[in-house]
Design goal:
Elements lengths: L13 H4 L7 H10 L4 H4 L2 H8 L3 H25 L5 H9 L2 H33 L5 H16 L3 H32 L24 H15 L5 H4 L7 H9 L2 H19 L13 H7 L4 H33 L17 H20 L2 H36 L13 H19 L4 H21 L25
Length: 484
Amino acid sequence: MSDTSATHAPAATPSAHTLRRGLSARHVRFMALGSAIGTGLFYGSSAAIQSAGPAVLLAYIVGGAAVFMVMRALGEMAVRHPVAGSFGQYAARYLGPLAGFVTGWTYAFEMVIVCLADVTAFGIYMGFWFPDVPRWIWVLSIILFIGALNLLSVKVFGELEFWFSLVKVSAIIAMIAGGIAIIAFGLGNQEENASGIANLWSHGGFAPEGIGGLIASLAVVMFAFGGIEIIGVTAGEAQDPKRVLPQAINTVPLRILLFYVLTLGVIMMLVPWTSITGEASPFVSIFTTLGIPFAPHLLNAVVITAAVSAINSDIFGAGRMMFGLAQQGQAPAIFRKTSRQGVPIFPVLILMVTLLVGVVLNAVIPEQAFLLIASVATFATVWVWLMILLSHVRMKHAIAREGRLPSEFPVPLWPAASYAAIAFVLFVVVVLGIVPDTRPALMVGAVWLAVLWLAYTLFVREQGRSAPDLEDATAPIPLPPRAP
């Protein structure tokens, strides 16, 4: 396989230290679909709506445009360098080994924190159906189940994500169709004139909280998009990364318009935005208005699917990032060892143990301390996106300086759009510091960066302090045939 590690990396037999390209186009395509749908959409959207009112739709459109640029930048690098470790290795190559170390470990830690929240949420969701069963049993069961499946092969992971994403996508489409039917034909149990497009401006206007509310909502909106970068992590195991990654990334705008803008627009047309309090998912309004008697059970099944899918992706993403760090000499060498199925064994096992310890800590430490640790996930999302954009800019300059072949999947509107995306992400960082609820994310993030710098200084040696020599897989772009 073409994955390369850091310069001076010791030779490794393919069977021992190599991932396998077991993800088909179908797997990657549905991973791209599913990565946009999670608890951030089903429940987190309430907070964004409360901050900005109907104007939150603009925040999703603007934020989605920035995320699309992040993904296009990641896609251009992934097609040129389809390696395990993805943006961690790109940062190490183009911004320096320290940047790669910080980015890779920040992403891996983010996945652990998010996964911890997801397994806890899974236990809560299962308690809805089985209130007499202790929550820790469900948490333990899902960790062991997903962990064991991730040890089998990457194809098993891909199949799981395909079916999970299919359920989530089908549920969203059904919700949109049901909501439109309510608005257009007056179906379901609703009061007269209760729903309609006028709800978008009849309760204080389209932007009732003004520009301040719109800006404040960006912190929640951008966090909801977190995790979408996992598509780049698949580059080392996709069967045809040059074809499937561009296809998946180019669907990002459509997914954002469908899953966020259209869905939340329909919800806010169904019920006044002022009635969305956050005590329940805004999606409940669609089911209850339709008068479906088993609506809570149906929604519970959907959010359980979303949680299991997220756990599956979290373990995959963190494990592959740790594998890439080990290839660079920035993680224990044992992390490079793979099973006969091409799966990095020890990162997956360590993640499972960490989650088990984390569940215990979640039960015994004060809630405030846990929330403070979890705020790193917000900071990590913004950090990873910023590193992707900066790595891409440095790569583009290196391509021009060294006279390399032009990219096969270049970002649009270079360089203006790339610099605009960087400015927007930096603006989101400022917003995190302004909004009181997200301010701890910056403070904890600063401490986290200091801890990583200290770890890099004390523990990383030789190979880990040199930029990785990534193989350039770019092929010449064929010239169009000349006219006769």
